[in-house]
């Protein structure tokens, strides 16, 4: 059987337009009993095994061979399928190391205010959504961010009451660490007005926000949840993402949501899903409960602090635009206890930490745990920290010494960095310029895994690489090659797998096929090495990520040797 990779027709809106992608290819019971062998040839194969590779053989769920076109002839007669790439690029599938899948799907299928240009625009969208969903017990929405709104403020409760006709509405800020709600929703949560984080006329944060979120999410039916999860997983594979790390927990989503997602992913027609459950543990019994949920670790969004946008990230010095230092949820002693218990139980530990004070607590706590259980055991466990935005020289050195994986989101800098961005507003220009120091992390030897924190920023792997290379603070930018490694192999290493995320014989057959332009070797600024398009350089190239250039288009995504997405043609 021979197949040619087709040239796709342009489809609808771009990824930024949030149009749901085509459904993944479903193979179900038609899967053959014996492993199929597939030869891909006539393209560019991004592999450290052979920088000149133009062909690849996949046997079952593994890469069997990578090499040049001439040698491919010897395989052509003995394979089940030959795929003619017609110059397309083959890369490892991406891993998004931080995702909230159900929330991402709800943003795709429901009320998403990420594109609202002003408060008035947001209210218009809310009115239209409420009118279109008369049967919903609670209206759910996401994505408002006043940074770009001329009004400079979120909608008031009175405005939301009017826009919804007095119905319950839960509407999260883009960072998901605060929310605005209607009076009708507050009335459904007894005692919420007395909880920390409730301030009349202000967005809900802290305990008040968590209580309202639980009430709102409790109204999502199993069918709605599955629909949302399927939409998010379909979006992921349409973008060449073969694995995602689900960051769940009792303050984010329920156990049914988490176990339902893992079950859906196990059916096998989408990306792999690795689950983390953000709950502290103190004993082997606690650890077994985490494992029983299907989680790899007690990690992910285990909150040490909140977010900068919601003024809840924990800082050493006060915010530039508020007279406080944010919120501390866990101190160094609590971090130490959790990490020690996880290490003893053979679980990964991990934390959400953004502010400099929160990151100090994490490093001090993990170091204290190392004194209890031994530094080698701590390093071998590959504990991880999500976001890690406001690092200092001391905390970078601590990450390196303790082998903590930094699970970071370059789109945060692209969205909120720069002299006029949210970071500068919250922290002042000098502190803002220290955020997200990816070059310093790599120089220190800190393992990096890249992700989106979707729906905070959208699933967008090539856009993520662009943001890491063309950092708004140029000294923090990294090479395209380093960013690509962190978004492919780095995600696998973060879950303890060193044999995956790369196209070499024996590795899992998780790959994507792309339509793209010339391949180059790109420095972490606007320079392009002039020799890089010469094949004699021996350095595998990548697409030119310079802002303004078109990013690659995914033609096919394969997970474990199974095609889970194929871009349709006219």
From TrEMBL:
Annotated transmembrane regions: none
SUPFAM superfamilies named among the record's database cross-references: Composite domain of metallo-dependent hydrolases, Metallo-dependent hydrolases
Database matches in Pfam families: Amidohydro_3
Record region (Disordered): 1-34, 528-547
The record's listing under InterPro entries reads:
Amidohydro_3, Metal-dep_hydrolase_composite, Metal_Hydrolase, YtcJ-like
Q: Which residues form the Amidohydrolase domain?
A: 81-565
Q: What is this protein called?
A: Amidohydrolase
**Organism encoding this protein:** Streptomyces halobius
